[in-house]
């Protein structure tokens, strides 16, 4: 009789504690817009770079994940590196810390213009279809407030979400609020030493905004509804939804869990003020215009893995005869789905597969599959042979070979094993050696 499958995963519960602190994942292009004017000084500029390097470490940087670009400004604006240049957390951090300081005036408007007209374009490596965010850090009022406010509006209207940080007593709070997408996206600190005190709040805000913005941001139209306006507390709320507009995009919002759903493209334009997500139906004066169109709903949320960082995870899978081919295929489906909960990549999480019956066989090493899609396909294509249950031999091979450099294991990352079996081993004494 086939025994119940026992899945020993308790050690995996430690993963979040031992992995690196890259706590925000998904997809986004984040531009660092950094004031290097003369009032800052070289020593304080180094503190700014330390803050930005630590800030970048809160995000999972990678080819298919989050990209960063940097733009410095004083008299003029300079792109330090594009979105494609650094696609690991380590190389990005080093690049930020090596940014040179030049001094000069505070031409913030010019920086925002360059962000819109160049930095957030394909020429600078910006991607279409992913959220775009800018973090502006400055220590003083710009040379020309009206120009800065004008360029900030154009940047935000292009679909970029802006967070602003002001350092010291010379900043202009009105200007900072005009730069940021929302007043809640403005942070002020008394001095450069105070930047360390806000790093978690700023990174959490950017992460939350990036996650909420994981919709089709390329569409800038607000769409009508057949029966009139988009009241925020309409009859749709009975089903858990209401309609609203964000940056000229119409959304059907889920009242309870703040899920944003994009509405299909139509031709009715309207400019609306950004509204923070509501956790329940609440009255508001914002409403989209009337139309004879009935929108259809198409979710476009970017894929997100729930566990990131660095680790080598070995799947040790029983393929003994008592399992049978049909049940083995169910095991493979489980493991394939399990693997998708992790951010697999060259500089993040690696998997290796080892199956066992009479003997143990490494199916693929830690370096073989470095994307979630290729890994999932490899797991699902694992062959089944049958035989006895030599679990001790499998654990021996895991120690003496699978978790060594010969199998692609890395020396400086956590190592975890997931053992899946349907029965008692051939020699339980061997397991205790």
Automatic annotation (TrEMBL):
PROSITE patterns: VWFA. Residues 29-202, 312-433 form the VWFA domain. Residues 1-20 form the signal peptide. SUPFAM superfamilies: vWA-like (SSF53300). Keywords: Signal. SMART domains: VWA. It holds the Pfam family VWA. The keyword Signal applies. It comes from the Eukaryota. This is VWFA domain-containing protein. The lineage of its organism: Eukaryota, Metazoa, Spiralia, Lophotrochozoa, Mollusca.
